[in-house]
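pinned: reference chain
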Amino acid sequence: MKRIATKVGVSVGGDLEGEATRGFIDAWHRAERGEKFRERHYAFENWRTLWRVLTGKRMEILGHVRRHRPASVRALAKALKRDYSNVHADVRALVDAKLMTATKAGLRADYDVIETKIKL
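pinned: its structure tokens
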């Protein structure tokens, strides 16, 4: 069975509306060609805003969740050997940013790549 490519796009600064339009048109053309894909795109106003959401520890959490799909925040904190309350705050920030999902079934980060484009 062919695996569907998944990615999250992140843009920082620039023409956010124009980026969204170009991304939609690109996805439309790929769908017309019959490509199978799932992707999301998020835009941040500036680098500082992105940095507040995607810290080094949160990137570590995303990678671990992608590979292991822990059943709970407690299990994640234990696996990472980190304080539960800090991990819980990081998970909440990632869920709020829609970069991760948390359900009764566990934690998930259902994409393979975070592709970042930063305007100077």
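why pinned: The chain has one domain: 5-118. The first strand starts at residue 5 and ends at 12.
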